[in-house]
Amino acid sequence: MIIEEPGVNQGRLPEPALVTGATGNVGGALVEHLLATGHKVRALVRSVDRAKSLLDPSVELFVGDITLPETITEAVSGAGTVIHAAGLPEQWHANPDIFDQVNGAGTINVADAALKANVRSFIYVSTIDVFVWSPGRPFDETIDPSPKHTRYERSKQFADRAVVDRMEFGLPARFVCPAGVFGPAPTLTPGVNQLLADLVANDIPMLLPGGLPMVFNRDVARGIVQIGLGPIGSRAILSGPYKTLLQIAVEVRQAAGSSKVPRVLPSWFAHVVSRIGEKLATRTGKPPLIPDGALHFLECHVVPDSSHAVSEFGWSPTPFDEAVAETVHWLRDR
């Protein structure tokens, strides 16, 4: 559902803009971009002291937790735009219900608060996991009605549908769907940044088979604003190139100048290690060495197509080698 809304697309998001997940990978880059473009920014944070050490002092901080709806109201009240970038990105957790609590119920809580406060714009940072894909074939923004492989993916599917449903009641939602996000951030979060950090530190003895599509977090931040200025119901994939883990390791070595390029673990052996690790994890509560969900995703050879974001919203990704080099320098500076 696409709805034209006069007066919003003037080059700036309605202000102030409230960001959830502001100290994370996407949220941190988004806050920087919003401030650099002159926006007034709010952030919903669980710890003011921690947020003050990570965010620009001009950001207005509100204490709250997306899983506790009563703590969100004050931050949303008076906001012109709510950008929901908070979420749990891991593919495994000792308590799998946490995915539904954070990604599912947490998104509903933020969306309902925004709806009740009559915000002018709600931007949901979704994921490419909500789309239909076939291994190795480019795909567009066609929603997959079938449940995905992992609890993480299914929780994001549920959250995406929940936001769509609330558009029927007047939620002015737009949807940004990034691939694997990396880049300088307030903190080192799980996911692609951790992979790059481990490669720089030579802490990966062998690479997993397969690969993933990647996108620079600063490009995602720009894309959020560009799509957020589009009509209500706008949705777009944000992704750079698909890279195998071997190709990523080679790029990191070129940027770092000293890191090693590990060998690739045979697929059959990776699956054996994954199955054993998953069984042990149910007893110990510790993450498996190779989570099944992560291995499954890597071997799906997921190739998202960002042409809609490019043609409709003027988005463009940073060249991959430049983005990796900047991220490697940030990791070393840390």
How does this structure look, described?
Helix 1 packs across helix 7 (217-228), helix 6 crosses helix 12 and helix 8 crosses helix 12. The protein contains twelve helices and 14 strands. The chain has 334 residues and is α/β, with parallel strands linked by helices. Strands 3-2-1-4-5-7-11 form a seven-stranded parallel beta sheet, with helices on both faces.
List the helices and strands and how they pair.
Layout: E1 17-20, H1 25-36, E2 41-45, H2 48-54, E3 60-63, H3 73-76, E4 81-84, H4 97-116, E5 121-125, E6 138-139, H5 151-167, E7 173-178, E8 180-182, H6 192-200, E9 206-207, E10 211-216, H7 217-228, E11 235-238, E12 242-244, H8 245-256, E13 263-264, H9 267-284, H10 292-298, E14 303-304, H11 307-313, H12 320-333
Parallel strand pairs: 1-2, 1-4, 2-3, 4-5, 5-7, 6-14, 7-11, 8-10, 9-13
Antiparallel strand pairs: 10-12
CATH homologous superfamily identity of the domain at 17-189 and 213-241 and 303-317: NAD(P)-binding Rossmann-like Domain
Apparent shape: globular
Straight-line N-to-C gap: 44 Å
Q: Which percent bin holds the helix content?
A: 40-55%
Strand content: 15-25%
**SS-based class:** alpha/beta
Number of strands: 14
CATH architecture of the domain at 17-189 and 213-241 and 303-317: 3-Layer(aba) Sandwich
The CATH topology assignment of the domain at 17-189 and 213-241 and 303-317 is Rossmann fold
N-to-C series of helices and strands: EHEHEHEHEEHEEHEEHEEHEHHEHH
CATH classification class of the domain at 17-189 and 213-241 and 303-317: Alpha Beta
Mean pLDDT: 94
Q: pLDDT below 50 for ≥5 consecutive residues: which ranges? A: 2-9
Radius of gyration: 19 Å
Given the structure, what is the number of helices? 12
Strand order of the largest sheet: 3-2-1-4-5-7-11
